[in-house]
Amino acid sequence: MVAHSGLITVMERAARKAGPKLRRDFNEVQQLQVSRKGPADFVSQADQQAEQTLFEELSRARPGWGLVMEERGIIEGDPDKPRWIVDPLDGTTNFLHGVPHFAISIAVEDPRGAGGRPEITHGYIYQPVTDESFWAEKGRGAWLHDRRLRVSARRNLDESMIGTGIPHLGRGDVARWARVYASVAPEVAGVRRFGSAALDLAWVAAGRMDGFWEDDLDVWDVAAGILLVKEAGGFVTDYRGGDKAVERRELVAANDALHSRLHKLIAGAVKA
């Protein structure tokens, strides 16, 4: 059994308390698919209930910590203490349509990280349907339950499967994404769009996908996943190759060899 910090234990307990209810709600959504009203209102309620459970559990475990939550927004805490970054249901559209690919994502941001900048130090991503727990601590690696994770060892783009997110109604720049896709797709073995950035990044950390790119992302979508990829030996940058993926709301993730090639393709297409 791999020993992890008390913070990972707190995150795991919170996620596993919210997870079973999401799983039950998901089974209900699959039944609602055939109803005339549809499951949209039900899913919104499931999302909010999961966030309420996470809020209660995390606040109880670490009083005084702030929170950044998808539904509630920023909840201020002691500025000298870390804060939680929480997405109670990443992959809402999948959930809405009865597709069993969604996750709870929780991260810890320390206000006094390396160089005095805020830094993500702990990340936890839980897939309630498969009961998979991906977690990472800064300097201690990335893990799936008790198994150490490493990014893919592939060195050639033409052997690689790359994940992405596709712009949709009300979100994203379709024309820019299309330029990037047209640049990347002919160079790789396959491009996949699974619909949960948190799980996409966890899968890159686990070597299930060789790389990933997406933009127009919020911090709660990617905070835990970025740490997982880095702790699994991968690289995460913005489209310019810098370290402002969260600030610029764009990221490229892969191992060292693939990242440089993927980044060049994406950067060139974005500038076009």
From TrEMBL:
Substrates-to-products reaction catalysed: a myo-inositol phosphate + H2O = myo-inositol + phosphate
This protein's record includes keyword Protein biosynthesis: no
GO molecular function per UniProt: inositol monophosphate 1-phosphatase activity; metal ion binding
Cofactor: Mg(2+)
A Pfam match: Inositol_P
EC number from the UniProt entry: 3.1.3.25
Protein's name in the database: Inositol-1-monophosphatase
Source organism: Sphingomonas jatrophae
